Amino acid sequence: MMIFEFEDTPLQTARMKVVGVGGAGGNAVNRMVDEDLEGVEFITANTDAQALKGSRAQVTLQIGKKLTRGLGAGARPEVGRQAISESQDEVRRVLEGADLVFITAGMGGGTGTGAAPIIGEIAREMGALTIGIVTKPFSFEGRKRERQAEQGLAELRRTVDTMIVVPNDRLLSVVPRGTSFRDALKKVDEVLLHATQGISDLIRVSGEVNVDFADVRTIMACRGPALMGSGFGEGDNRAQEAAQEAVSSPLLDDVSIHGALGVLINITGGMDLAIDEVHQISTIIQKEAGDEAEIIFGAVHDPELEGQIRVTVIATGFD
């Protein structure tokens, strides 16, 4: 089933907040701020007072002040957990009024792994649709970090509505050989940015085909693990290229979106984005997902993408 919505009346938009938890979450938020991701409020939460000084978020939250005295969690998730327990009232205060909360973190360390699930729990208790967008560590970071990440992911899965997991190892297959570690980490931030923007732009930007917050809630509420892919196309065959790339994205970790119950598609292009291209993209993705999927999509104009198309697909509701 496809839902088309054409609207021209500006709606009272949903209030969206992005919480970057721990070091990796803070870096991802800085990237989103640098890229002028609009219509969302940014919050960075960390045990490490020094790291918070470098945050460009509107709101910074030092958690576990008494416990860690600003020194970080030393890669121990239990410290992250205790820190956030100490600071729950402040978390509630900064999340007040949010309809949608994105929680972004790197799993495997101390603060992100320990605190993100509890922030998810608080956000959901407050009635917000809660989406976790997190990374799994590179395998070269060691087994201990990997085990901590798996435990953190299991806890986060229980507390958020939908969770998108980006395995850092998969990024090694998309960055050229010889890429510096720093640039590889920037790529991680870029993926977290596209996942967040793919959803927030659908709600915020009044496009040619509009999607409102209720549509997003339909696809995302209580849906568990999600898959995300993004694709880019330019030239004569750009629509097909972008759609194919999105459904065969390396970030999908060699799994298909087939069998998803809900699929959200964001099609962003220049002012030359044509209706038949929107149709072509939606058809390719619908075919890939299968007949059971409820598909909601929005088409958004971005003058900077003249001659180009970017497609973000988020598939939810797997068994």
UniProtKB/TrEMBL annotation:
Family from the record: Belongs to the FtsZ family.
Secretion signal span: none
Subcellular location: Cytoplasm
Protein name: Cell division protein FtsZ
UniProt xrefs under HAMAP family: FtsZ (MF_00909)
One GO biological process term: division septum assembly
PANTHER family to which the protein is assigned, alphabetical: CELL DIVISION PROTEIN FTSZ-RELATED, MITOCHONDRIAL DIVISION PROTEIN FSZA
Location of the Tubulin/FtsZ GTPase domain: 15-207
InterPro entries, alphabetized: Cell_div_FtsZ (IPR000158), Cell_div_FtsZ_CS (IPR020805), FtsZ/CetZ (IPR045061), FtsZ_C (IPR024757), Tub_FtsZ_C (IPR008280), Tubulin/FtsZ-like_C (IPR037103), Tubulin/FtsZ_2-layer-sand-dom (IPR018316), Tubulin/FtsZ_GTPase_sf (IPR036525)
Chief localization: cytoplasm
UniProt keyword list: Cell cycle, Cell division, Cytoplasm, GTP-binding, Nucleotide-binding, Septation
Residue ranges annotated for the Tubulin/FtsZ 2-layer sandwich domain, each copy included: 209-319
GO molecular function, one term: GTPase activity
UniProt source species: marine metagenome
One CC-aspect GO term: cell division site
